[in-house]
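Researcher: Final request for today, and then I'll write up notes for the group meeting. The sequence and the SMILES for zinc ion follow.
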Amino acid sequence: MTLSPDSCHPLSSDPRQALEQAEILCQRRGARLTELRRRVLEIIWSNPTPLSAYAILDLLRDDGRQGGPPTVYRALDFLLGQGLIHRLASLNVFTGCRQPDSRHNGQFLICRDCGQVDELSNPAVEELLRAEATARQFEVLAQMVEVLGRCPDCRGGETPYAG
Ligand SMILES: [Zn+2]
Ligand SMILES: [Zn+2]
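Model: Predicted protein-zinc ion complex:
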């Protein structure tokens, strides 16, 4: 897989591809994707739904690793800092970023029933929110949009409601 510096092609949710891209990005930035950080990222990508820090810690212990919550939090901080994962504040869980090579604020559709998350990245949404905040002289420090609902699988054959 080749990446141009500003490519922003969404990733599929294939953990191998995500890890490969993470390695390329960290190498390019001179950031160290240690074995533990890589494993935490792999755990996040391998799980169908976002995970809490404690769930990640449990899975690390299944690997036979030592270390407490600070170990996991440090790894998560690194991955957040590199834009490789996002934290969903409403649930306090972590999900892999589909476009880690482009700086963006997260926009997420979160399924209430199965917990699956779909990441959107629509610059128009970001700009609109920023403009609304600016009009109110509100300084935006972070912008996360989390939309709770039901995914197509959980909705089954239901027809969408009309507004
Ligand atoms: Zn993202
Ligand atoms: Zn669902």
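Model: The helical segments are 15-29, 35-46, 53-62, 69-81, 123-135, 152-155. The chain is about 40% helix and 15% strand.
Researcher: Thanks, that's everything.
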